[in-house]
Amino acid sequence: MFRVPKNVTHTIVFEVSPGDVEDFLSEYGIDVLSTARLLHYMAVAARELLKKYIPQDHTSVGYYFEIYHVKPTTIGERVQVTAKLLNVNGYKAEFEIEVKVKDEIVAKARHKRRVISVQEMIRKVYGV
């Protein structure tokens, strides 16, 4: 078991790069942040928050996402992703995540992660 204070937050900031854009829209000259890449950055913010509070021989894996992506973001824009811990139940943690460019909301999400032993994961994946 691990303890994390409720309502603790962690923020990451990134700049949208060509590798972050939606391929099918790029064909039309529309280079905007893809929802898949946005989801990645949201997971990173939540994972980094938990990492501060769990044992070094553990990590966390995501198992649930509910995302609402409301505004396009273009190459070069600075994006702020803030994960807020809502609750912990055993080895499971639930987050509310908000994404902004300047003061405008780009996306919101609910995300759940499970804390796992790295060695246990290696055994499950590789049978070692």
Summarize it.
With about 130 residues, the chain is of the alpha+beta class.
Tell me about this structure:
- The protein has 128 residues and is an alpha+beta fold.
- It has a single domain (9-126), classed as Hotdog Thioesterase (Thiol Ester Dehydrase, Chain A, Roll).
- 23% of the residues lie in helices and 43% in strands.
- It has three helices and five strands, in the order βααββββα.
- It has helices at residues 23-26, 35-51, 118-126; strands at 9-15, 58-69, 78-89, 92-101, 104-117.
- It has a five-stranded antiparallel beta sheet.
- β3 (78-89) and β4 (92-101) form a beta hairpin.
- The longest helix is centred in the middle third of the chain and has 17 residues, at 35-51.
- The two termini are 24 Å apart.
Q: What is the fold's blueprint, element by element?
A:
Layout: E1 9-15, H1 23-26, H2 35-51, E2 58-69, E3 78-89, E4 92-101, E5 104-117, H3 118-126
Antiparallel strand pairs: 1-3, 2-5, 3-4, 4-5
The number of distinct β-strands equals: 5
Number of helices: 3
Order of SSEs: EHHEEEEH
* CATH architectural grouping: Roll
State the CATH topology.
Answer: Thiol Ester Dehydrase, Chain A
What is the C-level CATH assignment?
A: Alpha Beta
The number of distinct structural domains comes to 1
pLDDT averaged over residues: 94
What is the rounded Rg?
A: 16 Å
CATH homologous superfamily name?
A: Hotdog Thioesterase
Task: Give the amount of beta strand, in percent.
Answer: 35-45%
| Spatial sequence of strands, sheet with the most strands | 1-3-4-5-2
Which word captures the global form?
globular
Biggest sheet statistics: 5 strands, antiparallel
- Summing up helix and strand content along with how strands pair, one would put the structural category as alpha+beta
**Which spans have pLDDT < 50 for at least 5 consecutive residues?**
none
